[in-house]
User: Which sequence fits this backbone?
């Protein structure tokens, strides 16, 4: 009888060990599944980050091109302002000379009379 009790206790112990091993394997499979999902998520995030960086680089290049165009436009605008100032100076000289010419003509007409 004692022997049967010992055998039953051994069988229960073996069953408990089998159940514990089965649970351990299930937990391991779940962890592997979660690990695989995390790896996929990391790969997706890396891909998105790479695309975002590419977009940012393109935007930075666009900003650089726009900045260069703006600088060129500012330089051309300054050149036009200088040319405009020179033109105004020439026109004012011409107007001054034209007034002097009119005065001279008026004096000559008065002298002829």
Assistant:
């Amino acid at each position: 009888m004692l022997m049967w009790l010992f055998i039953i206790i051994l069988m229960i112990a073996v069953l408990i060990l089998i159940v514990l091993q089965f649970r351990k394997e299930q937990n391991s499979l779940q962890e592997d599944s979660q690990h695989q999902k995390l790896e996929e998520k990391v790969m997706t995030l890396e891909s998105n980050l790479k695309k975002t960086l590419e977009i940012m680089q393109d935007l930075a290049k666009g900003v650089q091109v726009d900045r260069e165009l703006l600088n060129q436009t500012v330089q051309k605008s300054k050149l036009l302002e200088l040319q405009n100032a020179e033109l105004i100076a020439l026109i004012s000289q011409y107007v001054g000379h034209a007034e002097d010419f009119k005065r001279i003509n008026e004096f000559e007409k008065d002298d002829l009379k």
Summary: The chain is about 100% helix and 0% strand. The two ends are 164 Å apart (CA to CA).
